[in-house]
Amino acid sequence: MSMTGSRHHHYLFTLLAAVLGCATIVCAQSVPDETGNDANSKGTISGRVVNESGQPLPFTQVSVSGYGGGQGWVATTDADGNFQLTNLPPIAYLISVAAAGYVPRPRDPDVNPIGYYHAGDTVRLEMMKGGVITGTVTKANGEPVVSIKVDAYLVRDYKGQRPRYSNPVRSQQTDDRGIYRIYGLAPGTYIVSARGEFVSNYEVSPFNDKTPTFAPSSPRDTASEITVNVGDEVADVDIRYRDETGHSISGRVTSAKADALEQGVDISLVSVLNGFEQTGVDAYQRPGAPGFTFNGVADGEYEMIAQTYSPAGSWSVSGAQRIKVSGADITGVELSIKPLASIAGAVVLEDSKIVECQGKRRPVLGEIVIGAYHNEKNTAKDQPQFLWGFGAPLTPDSRGAFRLRDLAAGQYRFVTRPLAKYWYLKSIAWPTLSKAAQANQPLDAARSWTTVNAGDSFSGLVITFAAGATSLQGRIETTKGNLLPRAFVYLAPAEPEKREDILRYFAALAENDGSFAVGNVPPGRYWVLAKPAAESDSNMLSKLRLPDETELRAKILREGELAKTTAELKPCQNLTDYRVPLRAIE
Where residue 109 sits, what CATH number does that domain have? Predict the structure, then answer.
């Protein structure tokens, strides 16, 4: 039995870390003019790495990699924390920082709604000093427990929210004094446990059949919760090891496809407490093996799921099975794996013949990131959260074709945007002859959820970008001088025939001085509304475009009509120095 850090979970944690790393970047709001259509031109990404106090982090490694893998570049910051990478091809990039003891500040989606970057960006990467949890693991007689693995599980992040997709965990073995010290922890709330680690069927550990002991000396349901702030060292998180023998769970994984098990299968066992997933462990069914076994399982409720990755480049996953352990071993568990769903489509670029739009930079396909995001309000209760991490966003190929793979059963919407200044997202649609349309999917895939089941393979999704985008820059006017609360500027279509077009709703977070910028806007007439942010207002651009948020869009429209502040945006126009009054929050 191994920690939630086997092949699959390690992949997810690495992906999540990469995304969070790039998420620390903040770009300037004003976008320089873009001309020329050379898709092979090279560019530069430059920036600065700082700590939570704004002080530079010198001689720190910055890694820049193409979205979805491929080629990577590395730079080292100078004495002032500055770095620069040149001769970069025009593709989407992720950026991460390797600074011992530091963690990236989580991305604010209102500041950086896309989470990736392209050549030409100037960025600022903010790192936070990681926290530390340290203590001692001892036996009942006070003797140290040597070389036992201690895990710190993040159960709530610094905002009090449960971690998404998987349970981030950091681990460390005790030394010969029974002391452990886990560093580089993101701020949040943790539980800490000492437990055995199943390495292989041929290795023996004195802890393999023992249940985890949580600090201070507890089963999971009475474990102490430890709050870690930025840079904190929380000491004396001691564990009195209970040395209790647990139960075993054994079974086998099957598949209707004969070759599906050739790579072996990972099986995850995740404890469930008060309806929420908690800590997890993994087992492995080798190719040709009759089954799998978990040892050292404590009494409680669990969810079990099996997953395997095929050489063809896709995942097969079982349904989640709920298991209750109560005083005895469990045998004969059977999990059947099936391929996850996929959605294929193409990106279409519509040029404009308008004079003002000639000579402007066209989108580069390698810079367009497309993602399928599930409906979090309508997910199966027995489906583990980490399943949603399988279907990673991607970029289309040189012809504009793409295939979103490894989608768990659920409802999805599609998120993308052009990085070229004078282009906008026009539509996301299923043509009437597509396989999805034949399965009674709504044709407007931007306005409606797309539902997939296990094994579905839809094709024909068309994402259309059009030339002629406009931009709006300006300042919020307030009667309180330069002191401005956190505020958003909203754009909503003022033309009645455009009101149902979700892609014509925009939200942008204003700077502290009231300045704002909204880009990649379709030409047309818009209501412009500036409002202080409510406490719950976050990720507002994404929220505005959720298919279910009809009332939110209607409210923005109503308030825009009452404010009577409009902007007529013409194709390829850059409207600057626009003034909009701050409207009181209702």
Answer: 2.60.40.10
**Measured between alpha carbons, how far is 229 from 233 in angstroms, rounded to an integer?**
8
Please report which confidence band the pLDDT of residue 198 belongs to, taking 50, 70 and 90 as the band edges.
very low
Express as a percent the part of the chain with pLDDT over 90.
63
The strand order across the sheet containing 82-88 reads 82-88, 43-50, 122-129, 102-104
State the pTM of this model.
0.86
Q: Which of 240, 270, 287 is the last residue of a domain?
A: 240
In a domain, 171, yes or no: yes
Residues 336-356: tens digit of each pLDDT: 999 999 999 999 999 999 999
- Report d(CA 31, CA 21) in Å as an integer: 23
Distance CA 4, CA 169 (A): 8
Domain of 486 in residue numbering reads as: 471-581
Handedness of CA 380, 548, 426, 582 (dihedral sign): negative
Domain termination residue (choose one: 467, 492, 511): 467
**Dihedral sign, CA of 72, 76, 80, 83?**
negative
List the structure tokens of 452: 């997939």
Least confident of 196-200, 248-252, 490-494: 196-200
